[in-house]
Amino acid sequence: MSHDHDPAAGEQREVPMPTTDPILISDLTLGYGTHTVLDGLSLAVPAGSITALLGGNGAGKSTTLSALLGFARARTGTITVCGIDPAADPDEARRLIAYLPENVALYDHLSAFENADYLLALSGERPKRGTIEDALSAAGLQDRAWHRRLGGFSKGMRQKVAIAVALLRQVPVLLLDEPTSGLDPRATADFNALLAEVRARGTAVLMVTHDLLSAADIADRIAFLEAGRVEHEVAASGEERFDVRKLHARFQLGAGRLAA
Ligand SMILES: Nc1ncnc2c1ncn2[C@@H]1O[C@H](COP(=O)(O)OP(=O)(O)OP(=O)(O)O)[C@@H](O)[C@H]1O
């Protein structure tokens, strides 16, 4: 499955430097049939920052990611990924996005290395010799696991392979759907440390999550999605992190409002 690694041909693409916020959603309304899911949603994620998108079940968090990927079409409002409208040009928008769904689709019969190599080839990437190993290592996967089939991997190990692929793609936007669900606290901390590195590269990260602790630990901004829009947004200031108990209370308030 591995392709020929010609170092000369394997130059990594430059990460496009956005002139506007890489993720920009303005007054977005979207739904399925007669059911309106997003109703005036506005959200901006600047380069080099992490926004956690919180909200009750069915609030429209995954739908927001679908719209950024060009799978769900806006009725009104605008949505851009580095200035590209994903509905008008989904291929170009997806070229700029690394997306980690909740259940990452990897191939059990391939090794970690082969999975990364194959998935990158599907994205049209030809990584330089040694860069896959570097990325697997940076993602925290021990070298003895690099050439083992994924069949026996834990969820945390799979997540590391997936994030290694995302790291290798060097794209300006990373979308994560509940990335820490099912991870133990140690694996979650490792994952957050990795996200901090992705942020330091200038990537705009939007993370849908129910994990308040993880969001409080890593996010720069936390947006609460309620009644189809961002009703409340809080930002961490400097070294001061979020208070998880306050976030929990805020979340309960929103969930109560949704149920009312
Ligand atoms: N393809 C679809 N067709 C019709 N309705 C859909 C579709 N996808 C999602 N919905 C509906 O849109 C609403 C929002 O779903 P979405 O998956 O975006 O919520 P969510 O906030 O991600 O929820 P959860 O936290 O449970 O994952 C729900 O009522 C859901 O049933």
From TrEMBL:
Return the Pfam families for the record.
ABC_tran (PF00005)
Q: Which InterPro entries match?
A: AAA+_ATPase (IPR003593), ABC_transporter-like_ATP-bd (IPR003439), ABC_transporter-like_CS (IPR017871), ABC_Transporter_VariousFunc (IPR051782), P-loop_NTPase (IPR027417)
Q: Mind telling me which PANTHER family this protein's record contains?
A: ABC TRANSPORTER ATP-BINDING PROTEIN ALBC-RELATED
The alphabetized UniProt keywords are:
ATP-binding, Nucleotide-binding, Transport
Record-given protein name: ABC-2 type transport system ATP-binding protein
Q: Does the keyword ATP-binding apply?
A: yes
Question: Which molecular function GO terms apply here?
Answer: ATP binding; ATP hydrolysis activity
- Boundaries of every ABC transporter domain copy: 23-252
Coiled coil location = none
